[in-house]
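Annual report, structural modelling task.

Input specification for the zinc ion complex:
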Amino acid sequence: MTHAAEPPPGRPKAASALAEGSEPRAAGSVGASEPPPGRPKAASAPWGGSEPRAAGSVGAPYIGRFAPSPTGPLHAGSLVAALASWLDARAHGGRWLLRIEDVDTPRCVPGADRLIVQQLARCGLVPDAPPLWQSSRAAAYQTALEQLIDSGLAYPCACSRQDIAQAQAAAGITRQRGRELPYPGTCRPERGGLHGRAARAWRMHTGRFEQKWLAAPVHQARAAINDEASGAIHWHDRRLGAQQQQLSREVGDFVLKRADGLWAYQLAVVVDDAAQGITDVVRGQDLADNTPRQIALQTALGLPTPRYLHTPLVLGADGEKLSKQNGAQALDLSDPARALRAAARHLQLDADASDGSVGALLTRWTAQWQARLTA
Ligand SMILES: [Zn+2]
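The model returned the following structure:
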């Protein structure tokens, strides 16, 4: 494995910064079963998944994580994800880690990382190790990219946003609302590569991945059961059930390193989940659609695939995921128990108990969560 922290030769520092790859994006349907409407609000909601792993069970000890981007303080939606991941770790007798996902530096707000750590602590959610900052991890991401290049699964791309839009239009593909179109593959090596243009970004060759890896019998035993016929990645979500996605058709060759030199979310998450030994990813449902890309990268890099649980989103007044863009307020933590109760209610936990201390509430909800795992 190579070790250079330097950019690969011939990779210019692009003058114009592209935002593509900057954040997780919805790339079409996850193509599987939504929970049926009117799902019972039972304490035994089937979030434990098909293979509950009791504390102390055989296999890797449970390690979970909460991985916020420091683009602002926690809001009601991010507290739900934090609480769910903490409860899942505690209910499994496992460890809970914190990772600050600050690769997209232009979007990060100075001091927000410290504020998030303080907000979590006020809610009794204290990580079992010092946080990991993604901004300190460039060498590991570079090593992973080189591994993908060496195995023919990553290639440089010279396209600007405009180039991509023109190629899509020429192919008769028009932009659909709320859905980003797959990259048309202009710079794939078998189509002539860069055509003399300067490399701007690096992309994952999803077509080659599907040919090379999904058909390989050795990978059929993985958690991500593949589908040789369609090239789709199949995976199991502990709440959403069976999911599948064909990357080459539904997502296209996604960005690994951006034209502005920043690391793309997908690669950073996969490298860091492995480095932190994460066995279980518990996060908001808006990220469910990213999972097949991450499974593909894990497979290509020879890394383990964690189990996944995607929690229901907190929606803003406009029906979209709660975010700063649609008016999410920073959490009012003058009464942390109150903020936690709201988050717990969203997770269908009993939030109305009279005992109000943060510690007592967390203990009660941990027991409820544990009961779900064995229900
Ligand atoms: Zn290109």
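Residues 1-45, 50-58 have pLDDT under 50 and may be disordered.
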